[in-house]
Amino acid sequence: MSRLPRPNPSTEVRCRVALRQLGEAFPETALDSWRYDRTIAPKYRKTGLGQMLETLLDRLAAKLGCAVSDLRLDHDPALENRLKVFVKGVHVDYEPLANDPDYLRYRPHGTQFAGSHDVKTRIRGDNGQLSDNALAKKERRRLRKLDPKRKKAKIRSANRWPPRGSQKIQSRRKR
Length: 175
Description:
two-stranded antiparallel ribbon, flat, 2 domains, alpha+beta
């Protein structure tokens, strides 16, 4: 089964995620005030939501104790561990949606940070659970046992030519 390309979240979604993490009670009001504030726009090269995102990421990085360049947007749960939505046998989306702000979170990347993206993805999950990659591998192993086509492939590969063992086999080439 083919994998969907990882969708890029919009600037608005990224702002919503940062506002939620900073504890903003009314993200809609904050987004509207930045979106339509005409006094801010001429002062900066990036205007509107782009400038808001930079400001929010600066505040979030200070709160997490890392640099802005260390922040990574993390899907929680990971895309590979979400339910896949199929239409006529074709993978079209995820459940919950891939860029749903309620299931995204900014995390610092390096392993030296507490709760980092790298540790959650590859080493261990939150609170010492299985990592995202380990959960996906476990699920693939479980599905492989249930899939009858996979079992036939295993049986076929067990009947190898030439067979192993001490038995000497004549060459099939004609001389």
